[in-house]
């Protein structure tokens, strides 16, 4: 349903709504997919997952960074979380976005921030640092920064978005890096990316298989798609791929039963845990992928105290969400 997807992707890019949402705090079910905004809550969440044999990658939310001060603040928050993971002897690493480190206005600042994070990560048992991929516009920056850092650090990796025609070339370029394989979460045009679900799924499966056979480092298979997971598990078995060469990943709050089942079968499993106040953009992208997630929001909207709590601001969000829901319900018919 491209109109619904475009609607929520549009909202995810709206800086006014993002800023306002940050002030209000997680609403409409976002707290089910974001692990709070205090270190204590985050650490409890990681401990709970670790006790189930699941490791984590933490994303300190926040993409709309426009000043040097904000970029440094974002870097400091990432360092704080890294320290907490290390200090509590937890199994976890970090996922960062170059945009939160300042790349949108000063790529060298983002590079310096990331390098500082990597230097600290070396002191914390060589904690892995993953650079999440964002809109296609930022891919060049990511590869530039990665190329500058990968000689100096072994614990840095990134994400391959299978909807991009370029994905093949990126897999060939980085066999020695730990890579996460995803379908791709942004809206890209037909000049650079596959458009239909069938094409994207087909390319995704093909690329994971290619990577599993050629990689010199861990491949993270990040999807909630049980059919694809089943196919890949069979491929891994047929090709006798060592357990240490791959892991499965899912987002916090989605398909937890399936995640626990896959981990229980003896596979390495990692949950991507978003953390912090900047929940809106992340949440809107999840709605764009799967409008069924609107059910989460509807349940919250029906709670009588929710609108009273934050008045007008909640009203604006309720209007936005209701419009998306109506679009989804009308177009589904
Ligand atoms: C750990 C992780 C990290 C990511 N990092 C990035 C990144 O750096 N950059 C980026 O662009 N994207 C990233 N993504 C998002 C990714 O690109 C996809 O947009 C997102 O994962 C949705 O695609 P999917 O593979 O889960 O399957 P979809 O195509 O969304 O779903 C396929 C099928 O799976 C089943 N399914 C999916 N979700 C559910 C559910 N909640 N309940 C029941 N059934 C369900 C349904 O049958 C559905 O038809 C990441 C995703 C994960 C899991």
Automatic annotation (TrEMBL):
Cofactor binding note: Binds 1 FAD per subunit.
Major enzyme class: oxidoreductase
Residue ranges of the TM segments: 310-331
Species name: Staphylococcus saprophyticus subsp. saprophyticus (strain ATCC 15305 / DSM 20229 / NCIMB 8711 / NCTC 7292 / S-41)
Name of protein: proline dehydrogenase
Keywords for this protein: FAD, Flavoprotein, Membrane, Nucleotide-binding, Oxidoreductase, Proline metabolism, Transmembrane, Transmembrane helix
Limits of the Proline dehydrogenase domain: 43-293
Protein's pathway: Amino-acid degradation; L-proline degradation into L-glutamate; L-glutamate from L-proline: step 1/2
Cofactor: FAD
Gene Ontology MF terms in the entry: nucleotide binding; proline dehydrogenase activity
Residues that bind FAD: 161, 183-185, 197, 223-224
């Amino acid at each position: 349903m491209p109109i619904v997807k475009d609607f929520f992707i549009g909202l995810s890019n709206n800086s006014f709504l993002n800023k306002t949402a940050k002030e209000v705090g997680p609403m409409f079910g976002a707290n089910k997919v974001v692990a709070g905004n205090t270190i204590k809550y985050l650490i409890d969440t990681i401990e709970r997952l670790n006790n189930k044999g699941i490791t984590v990658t933490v994303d300190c939310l926040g993409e709309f960074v426009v000043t040097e001060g904000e970029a440094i603040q974002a870097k400091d928050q990432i360092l704080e979380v890294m320290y907490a993971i290390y200090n509590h002897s937890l199994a976890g690493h970090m996922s960062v976005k170059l945009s939160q480190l300042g790349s949108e206005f000063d790529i060298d600042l983002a590079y310096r921030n990331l390098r500082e994070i990597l230097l600290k990560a070396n002191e914390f048992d060589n904690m892995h640092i993953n650079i999440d991929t964002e809109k296609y516009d930022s891919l060049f920056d990511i590869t530039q920064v990665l190329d500058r850092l990968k000689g100096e650090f072994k614990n840095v990796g990134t994400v391959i978005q299978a909807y991009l025609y370029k994905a093949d070339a990126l897999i060939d370029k980085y066999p020695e890096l730990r890579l996460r394989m995803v379908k791709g979460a942004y809206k890209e045009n037909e000049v650079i990316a596959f458009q239909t679900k069938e094409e994207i799924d087909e390319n995704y499966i093909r690329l994971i298989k290619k990577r599993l056979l050629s990689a010199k480092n861990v491949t993270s298979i990040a999807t909630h798609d049980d059919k694809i997971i089943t196919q890949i598990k069979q491929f891994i078995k047929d090709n006798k791929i060592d357990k240490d060469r791959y892991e499965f990943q899912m987002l916090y709050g989605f398909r937890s039963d399936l995640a626990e089942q896959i981990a229980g079968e003896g596979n390495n499993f990692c949950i991507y845990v978003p953390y912090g106040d900047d929940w809106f953009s992340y949440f809107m992208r999840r709605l764009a992928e799967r409008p069924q997630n609107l059910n989460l929001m509807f349940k919250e909207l029906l709670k009588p105290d929710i609108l009273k709590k934050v008045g007008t601001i909640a009203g604006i969000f309720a209007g936005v969400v209701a419009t998306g829901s109506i679009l989804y319900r009308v177009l589904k018919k």
